[in-house]
């Protein structure tokens, strides 16, 4: 998170303050100059100069608020202008690709999606992304400034190299470099669960939480972690394979080579089995069965494994909040509540912090797309 600074040179200070102001407007939406001054710890004349400069460049506009309070002259609202900075967000999932053009302030200006039933070949996926990006840019009359892309796999953040994305059958794909070469735009690639965590932290359930874990199921199970307000990154940026924490050594063989990974107990196939569906039931059927579930006790064993893994994660990382994403957002509320209660019973750390909250993601299926957009916006806001 960028904050104002006392810096060393006037132009550096101005640039830093401008980025902080843009980021504040991008994340939290319209605000008055007076509120911006208070929130950013800057004096009013500094805010006026920054807003005037951004308004002149067409990045923000000022409007009379729809609801006016008091009899005096209304305070003008400073609004980010969505078309002033547009990024391309892409969520490559196991079954389909979702894509959006996202404007300053986070509005999704246009969408496209296609399924991957015919091929998941990386070259074909890249070709489709590029064609779709060109069509959407024409339709929306937008000039994107950057690209963020979410991949369900192990990703090297420095150059967007996908080391392995098992459910896509991708190994050693230079996704970032290949897309940059064709789109001629900066491309940021992130692990899907890491971007889900980022989205929840910036725009979802974890806006007020500086220590949170995001867990999602989309065939496999992944995790993203934010500690002290910063994403947790491991060696080379590889981290978050929480689905491959071994919870049941006598359990099923996982494709990673281990027996009884958490994913084998709480991934989509395991949920299908608990519901009496085939392992590879279509997502629509799984969600419909969950929504119509009369007897949530069918999910008792599944919920037990979910809680066991979460209790381990909470003991290690100490988050105040766990957000369940993707397929887990379709779990009945009573199941989520029982998981939450079991985590508190089983985790010393949860009890110590007064109970780690377990909630479902309000962003749902859009979480990774939103996270990809935020990843793309990071360098764009600095340069705007
Ligand atoms: Zn595994």
Give me some keywords for this one.
384 residues, alpha/beta, Arc Repressor Mutant, subunit A, Nucleotidyltransferase, domain 5, 3 domains, five-stranded mixed sheet, 13 helices, 16 strands, globular, binds zinc ion
Mind explaining what this structure looks like?
The protein has 384 residues and is of the alpha/beta class. The model has no long low-confidence stretch (mean pLDDT 92). It starts with 9 loop residues before the first helix and ends with a helix. Helices cover 40% and strands 22% of the residues. α2 crosses α3 and α10 crosses α11 (333-346). The longest helix is centred in the N-terminal third of the chain and has 19 residues, at 10-28. It folds into three domains: 10-80, Winged helix-like DNA-binding domain superfamily/Winged helix DNA-binding domain (Arc Repressor Mutant, subunit A, Orthogonal Bundle), CATH 1.10.10.10; 84-194 and 368-383, 2-Layer Sandwich (Nucleotidyltransferase, domain 5), CATH 3.30.420.40; 205-362, 2-Layer Sandwich (Nucleotidyltransferase, domain 5). It binds zinc ion. Residues 244, 254, 256, 258, 261, 263 line the site of zinc ion. Zinc ion binds next to loops.
């Amino acid at each position: 998170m960028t904050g104002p600074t006392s810096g060393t040179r006037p132009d550096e200070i101005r640039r830093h303050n401008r980025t902080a102001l843009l980021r504040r407007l991008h994340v939290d939406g319209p605000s008055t100059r007076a509120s911006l001054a208070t929130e950013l710890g800057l004096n009013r004349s500094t805010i006026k100069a920054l807003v005037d400069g951004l308004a002149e460049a067409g990045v923000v506009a000022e409007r009379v608020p729809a609801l006016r309070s008091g009899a005096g002259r209304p305070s003008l609202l400073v609004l980010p202008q969505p078309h002033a900075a547009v990024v391309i967000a892409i969520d490559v999932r196991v079954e389909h690709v979702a894509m959006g053009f996202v404007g300053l302030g986070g509005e999704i200006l246009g969408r496209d999606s296609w399924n991957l039933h015919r091929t998941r070949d990386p070259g074909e996926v890249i070709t489709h992304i590029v064609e779709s990006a060109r069509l959407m840019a024409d339709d929306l009359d937008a000039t994107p400034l950057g690209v963020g892309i979410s991949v369900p796999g192990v990703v090297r953040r420095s150059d967007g190299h996908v080391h392995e994305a098992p459910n896509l059958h991708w190994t050693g794909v230079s996704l970032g470099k290949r897309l940059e070469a064709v789109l001629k735009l900066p491309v940021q690639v992130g692990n899907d669960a890491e971007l889900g965590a980022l989205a929840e932290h910036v725009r979802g359930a974890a806006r007020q939480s500086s220590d949170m874990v995001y867990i999602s199921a989309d065939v496999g199970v992944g995790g993203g972690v934010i500690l002290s307000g910063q994403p947790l990154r491991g060696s080379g940026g590889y981290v978050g394979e929480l689905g491959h924490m071994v919870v049941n050594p006598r359990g099923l063989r996982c494709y990673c080579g281990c027996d009884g990974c958490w994913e084998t107990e709480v991934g989509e196939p395991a949920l299908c089995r608990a519901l009496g569906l085939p392992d590879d039931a279509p997502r629509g059927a799984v969600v419909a069965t969950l929504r119509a579930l009369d007897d949530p006790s069918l999910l008792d064993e599944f919920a037990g494994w979910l809680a066991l893994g979460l209790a381990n994660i909470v003991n290690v990382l100490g988050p105040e909040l766990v957000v369940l994403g993707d397929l887990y957002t379709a779990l009945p509320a009573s199941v989520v509540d029982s998981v939450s209660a079991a985590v508190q019973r089983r985790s010393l750390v949860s009890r110590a912090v007064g109970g780690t909250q377990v909630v479902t993601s309000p962003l749902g299926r859009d979480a990774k797309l939103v996270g990809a957009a935020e990843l793309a916006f990071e360098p764009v806001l600095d340069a705007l």
